[in-house]
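[step 3/7] inverse_fold.run input=structure_tokens len=70
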């Protein structure tokens, strides 16, 4: 899970991890930028406001349940 993965360092990191076989979820607040970054990197997009701690916790729990670990 890369919070703020729709641009800059986050999208570069997503590309690198995916090229090494990782499954990556990227988050961001702007749906259009997030979808573009997901299409460019192959990451799974998730619209998320990182200031919402409950939403972050829910994302981490669902991702952990889906993939077995983080």
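[step 3/7] decode complete -> sequence:
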């Amino acid at each position: 899970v890369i919070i703020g993965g729709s641009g800059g360092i986050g999208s570069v990191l997503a590309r690198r991890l995916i090229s090494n076989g990782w499954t990556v979820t990227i988050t961001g607040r702007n749906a259009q930028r997030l979808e573009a970054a997901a299409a460019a990197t192959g990451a799974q997009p998730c619209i998320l406001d990182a200031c919402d701690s409950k939403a972050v916790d829910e994302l981490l729990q669902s991702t952990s349940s889906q993939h077995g670990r983080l």
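[step 4/7] annotate
Strands lie at 2-3, 25-28, 44-47.
The longest strand covers residues 25-28.
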